[in-house]
Amino acid sequence: MKATETTSTVLLHHHLKTLRLPTVAAECEKVASQAAADNADHLAYLLQLTALELLEREKRSAEQRVKAARFPTIKTLETFDFAARPSVNKVLIAELMRCEYIDKKENILLVGNPGTGKSHLATALAAQACAQGYRVRFYRTTELVTALIEARDERTFLRLKANLAKLDLLVLDELGYVPASKVGAELLFDVISTAYERTSLIVTTNLPFESWTEVLGSERLTGATLDRLTHRCRIIETKGESYRLHDAKARTRRSTAKKSDQPVDDGPASR
Ligand code: ADP
Ligand code: MG
Fold this sequence. Notes:
Distance between the termini: 77 Å
Structural class: alpha/beta
Shape: globular
Strand content: 5-15%
Bound molecules: adenosine-5'-diphosphate, magnesium ion
Helix content: 55-70%
Number of strands: 5
Order of helices and strands: HHHHHEHEHHEHEHHEH
Largest sheet: 5 strands, parallel
Number of helices: 12
């Protein structure tokens, strides 16, 4: 009896490996003892095991989507201080976290000065899209433009374009930090117009609309780019001073207040 059990267990693990069910393989014996103790029937046992496999599979593919998105840093909404950025509508952000804009192929434009949380919000929104099963890629705009220029005359260009076409959400961070060359601006326009009504875009920029011509070069291209980008678009303005500056000032204020409250401590050297 013991020998048969061992043989069937080995065979079972072999089948589970062939069927690529690693979680079922890892959990089947433990869940079987629990099912026996609970007097659960065979179908309940099978249901529990398949649910575990599915859960693990979803977790793994969410992790893979985050990896494929290539976020420079992971930021979440939990660490975003809305009180410090009153121009950002918390209710709107909560609505956008549901990702319906991606199904509707709508865009999000985050506009504001450097350090005001644009990339933070863009990353938090895009990471949520990964968690919900959407294919996402985060690019610094200059990085994408450089990749497109470099790939332009090669077969890799088509591959890059095909990869962009597969996305549900494309993040273009820091559009406008450096003026694009004529070719760069045209390639960027091509990405934005290809995405139009097919792939959602999140664009962050420190540029007010009237300055976009300085970056894209021509009035015609700027008009056409803004037309596509802002049609069906949520605009979020992160008004005010840099968060880092605000944070540094608050820390200075706290430490000054502390010093004036407390007796001066000259540190261990004076003791
Ligand atoms: P931007 O992209 O607008 O230049 P970032 O999103 O990179 O600014 O923000 C700069 C730094 O400040 C980041 O580390 C970010 O996490 C932090 N930060 C900005 N705004 C907030 C905020 N409202 N709450 C918490 N951290 C913030
Ligand atoms: Mg940024």
